Amino acid sequence: MPLEEDTGEPFRTLSPTERVPGFRVRTTGGESIDSTELVGKRPFVVVFFATWCGVCEMKLPVLARALEVVGGDIPVVSVGVDEPDTWHRVDGYLARLGFSHPTVRATDFPRFSTAYDPLATVPAVAVVGQNGYLVDYQLGYGPSHPRRLLLALRVARDIPRDAPPLLSRPPAADPASSPALDPIDDDEAGRSPARQ
Q1: CA torsion 162→104→149→75, rounded to 10°?
Q2: CA 35, CA 23: separation in Å to the nearest integer?
Q3: For 9-48, how does the pLDDT look when each residue is reduced to its tens digit (9 = 90+)?
Q4: Which of 77, 102, 125, 163 has the largest CB neighbor count within 10 A?
């Protein structure tokens, strides 16, 4: 079992007004992921799932589609919360859903998992801007999630690296006038007007 590496910062969970917590984890494929290469440098996504989670089967393809539409090579850390008795299903499950991102076992990295999914809920998606702050956090799945994911990924990609957290500045009088919040059409969100 890999050991979670200490990042030197006190333990804390996600907060919309602070930079996201640092982490060092190792994927099931042996790849090291160090937050010092991500936080404040590029946008990234952390998604928690389980093979037994029916809602995850809806959420992961929506996230994959949103990442494809937005483009820009946004790194994703997928975190499987399956226990040893179901872990053997993870690779096939992700392949079936078309979700091919590095996977971390939540049980191997409890500090990281608790920091990014403090409610231990699946699915959970944290979208982090290139400024190092949380842009959106989604639990479960709802009708607004495809559109919100597209918007959050675009904001995460386009927000300046030196920008303060989104919640620390007053809301714009007209959110549509913000350059980071460009319009999302229904086809991009995975819905066509005919299916509404």
Answers
A1: 50
A2: 5
A3: 778 899 989 999 999 999 999 999 999 999 999 999 999 9
A4: 125
Distance from C-alpha of 85 to C-alpha of 63, rounded to nearest angstrom: 26
Task: Say if residues 107 and 30 touch (Cβ distance below 8 Å).
Answer: no
Is the preceding omega at residue 123 within 30 degrees of 0, hence cis?
yes
Place of tokens 């010092």: 36
Kindly report whether the global pTM for this prediction surpasses the value 0.85.
Answer: no
- Nearest by Cα to 61 from 36, 97, 100, 112: 97
- The DSSP bridge partners found for residue 128 are 44, 134
Of the candidates 64, 99, 78, which has an alpha carbon nearest to the alpha carbon of residue 28? 78
Q: What is the pLDDT of residues 42-73, one digit of tens each?
A: 999 999 999 999 999 999 999 999 999 999 89
CB atoms under 10 Å from CB of 152, counted, come to: 26
